[in-house]
Amino acid sequence: MSRQILCLPGDGIGPEIVTEALKVLDAVKQRFSLDIEVSHALVGGAAIDAEGTPLPAETLKQAKQSDAILFGAVGGPDWDDLPMTKRPEKGLLGLRSGLDLFANLRPAILFPQLAEASSLKAELVAGLDILIIRELTGGIYFGEPRGVRTLENGEREGYNTYVYRESEIKRIAKVAFEAAQKRNGRLCSVDKSNVLEATAFWRELVSGMAGDYSDVELSHMYVDNAAMQLVREPKQFDVIVTGNMFGDILSDCAAMLTGSIGMLPSASLNEKNQGMYEPVHGSAPDIAGQGKANPLAQILSLAMLLRYSLGEIAAADAIEQAVGDVLDQGLRTGDIASEGCRLVSTAQMGDAVVNCL
Amino acid sequence: MSRQILCLPGDGIGPEIVTEALKVLDAVKQRFSLDIEVSHALVGGAAIDAEGTPLPAETLKQAKQSDAILFGAVGGPDWDDLPMTKRPEKGLLGLRSGLDLFANLRPAILFPQLAEASSLKAELVAGLDILIIRELTGGIYFGEPRGVRTLENGEREGYNTYVYRESEIKRIAKVAFEAAQKRNGRLCSVDKSNVLEATAFWRELVSGMAGDYSDVELSHMYVDNAAMQLVREPKQFDVIVTGNMFGDILSDCAAMLTGSIGMLPSASLNEKNQGMYEPVHGSAPDIAGQGKANPLAQILSLAMLLRYSLGEIAAADAIEQAVGDVLDQGLRTGDIASEGCRLVSTAQMGDAVVNCL
Ligand SMILES: CC(C)[C@H](C(=O)O)[C@@H](O)C(=O)O
Ligand SMILES: CC(C)[C@H](C(=O)O)[C@@H](O)C(=O)O
Fold first, then answer.
1. Could you say which residues form the signal peptide (chains A, B) (predicted)?
2. Residue of B43, B80, B84, B92 with the most ligand 2 atoms within 8 Å of its CB, for mutation
3. Which of B160, B150, B171 is nearest to B196 (CA)?
4. What is the model's pTM?
5. Which of A139, A174, A278, B34 is 20 to 30 A from A308 in CA distance terms?
6. Of the candidates A148, A199, A255, which has its C-beta nearest B201's C-beta?
C-alpha cells in the first residue's frame, strides 16, 4: 500500500521551498522505487485568506490520515494584526496538538562547508552536532487558564499557565533518553527548578528515570545557564531535553550558533511516529517569491521524514549526501553565500540536489 | 546624615569579593569625603546555617532601612537538597520582592582589554554595550497558584502562573523608555505575543506608551528571535526590556557574549531608587576560598550603587576608571587570564584597584 505525505506549504517562502523538496522527493521515489503519494492542503495565512481560518477542518483531517506531513512555514505581516486565535501560528499549534506531536527534534549541526558562517570562533563550533528535544504539545503554550482579566481595582492583568503532567514529562524524557543512547550517551535536562515548581517536578521525574538508562549520563542545568553554556562552549552538549517554552528559545539560539539557520530541519513526532517535518527557519516574507530562499532546510526536512516516519533510511541518506555534494560544489543561496562560491537561486539549488541523486 | 549601605556577602565566593569591594569603598570614601556607614547581615546558605532560614527577618528589616545593598552571591551544593522554599535562592527572591526591586538593570559591556575573551568573532562584539532591563518582582517567578497537585486520575502535575498586571508592565516600561532616552534612543521589547496572552498584553501596553517617548525608537521582538539575534548580531541592540523569566535567560546569554561574566555588575531598583547591587555571576562554590575569584564585577556593582542609589557620580566614575586602569596594566584573575598578562589573586586585584584610586 502506498504511503501518504501531506504537503502544507503555508506562507512566505514556504511554497517555493516545498516545491524544491518535492522535486527531490520525485527523484528519490524513482531511484529507490518508493510508493509514496503526495497531497496538498492549506494552512496558516494561505488558509485564512482562502477559508477564513488558519487550520481548516479538512486540513486537520487529511493530516491525521497521512503518514507524514511536509510543512513549509506560516505567518507574515499580512496577518499580524489579527487577534491571537485567528493568526497563522494557530494553524501550526493546532496541528501539533491535534496530532499529538509531542516530540520536537531539532538538530543543530554545523556543516563543515559552512564553518565560517557561524558568529562564533571556528574552534568552538567545528564539528558541532547537538540534538535539542523540545516538548511540543504542553507547557505554557497550551496551559489553561489563559487570557486577560480585569481585577477588582479596575486594573487589567494578562495571565498564562505553565503546566506539565507526569505522563507528558515521562514520554518526552523517554524519547530523549533513547535518542541519547543512539548518539553519544549524554543527556542534559534543562529546567528552572530553583524557582519554578513545575520544572522542579520535571527534574524529579527525569532523574527518577535515569536508572532505566544506565548507559546514558544524565545531567541537569538551569535554563539561564544553558543559554550561557550554548554560547560559551556548545560542544559540551550531546542531547538536550526541555519543555516547550525553554525549547523554543534554546533551539533557536543553538540553531543560530551554526550560522546557517537556512540549513536546519526539524521533526515533530507522536507516539505512532507519525510526524510533521519543517525547516527551523520561518516564512521570511521579506524575500518571498524572489527565488532567493534556501531550500536545503526543507529538503533536509524531507530526509528526516523519510528516515523517521517512513523508515526509508537509504533514501534519507542519499538526500543528505546530495546536500553535502552541492555544498562541496560551492553552490550557495544568498543566506549562506561567501566569497569564491557560486550564488544560485532557490530552483537552481533544488535542481542541483536532484542532479546529485 | 550618613548614608547606610548593607552588605550581604552570602555564599561561595561572595564574602571574598565583597571584602575587596569594601576596600574600594574605603578608598573612595576618603578621596571624595563620603559619609557612608556599612553594616553586615546574613543571607542565603550562610543564613540557613546560622539561623535556619535564607532570609532572616532581621536581614530584611536592615535591608529596608538602608539606602542601598551590596549583595555578593548565594547558593551552593551544601543546600541543593533542601526543599524549594528553604533554599538560598529564596533569600535573594525574598529581598527582591520585599523591597519591591522591580527594575533589574543588566549591562552587557565588552571591555576592550578583554575583547578576545568572547566566544564570538571580534568584529561582532567590539564595542558591545547593551542594557538589558528585566522586570524582577513579577511574572512567573512570583505568580500564584503554583505547586504540584494530584489529578483525578491519580497522576500528578506541576504548575506555575505567568501573570503581569497593567501597573507592573507600565512601571518597568517607563524605566526602559527613560534609560533608552539617556542612551542611544532605541528600545526593543521582547515577548512571545504570538503565543502567550500575558505577553501580548505586555506588548499592547508598551506600544501604547511609545507616544510619550517620541525620541525613542521602539521595536518588538519574539523571545526566540531575540535569543538568535543576540548571537547573530548583538550590536543591533541598545536597550532591551522584558519580563522576569525571559530576562533571566536573555541577560545571561548577553553577558556571556562578552566572554567576561566575571566583570559584569547589575542593579535592582525600586520606585525610590533604593537598590540592591550584585555581580551577574553566581557563587562559584568550586573556587570559593581559594583567592581565585574575580572581584571586579562586585567592585563595578559598588560603582553602580554609588551612581544610582547614592548619586555619587564622581566616585562611581573614579571606580570604573580604576578598573579600566588595572586591566590596562595587564592584571587578570584566572577567569579572564590570557597570554602575556599577569595572573593575580582576588585580594591583589582589589588592592590594585585601590592603588589606582
Ligand atoms: C511560530 C511559533 C508559534 C513557533 C513556536 O513558538 O513554537 C515557532 O517559533 C517555532 O519554534 O516553531
Ligand atoms: C538564583 C536565581 C534565583 C536568579 C534568578 O533566576 O533570578 C539568578 O539566576 C539571577 O538571574 O539573578
1. none
2. B92
3. B160
4. 0.96
5. A139
6. A148
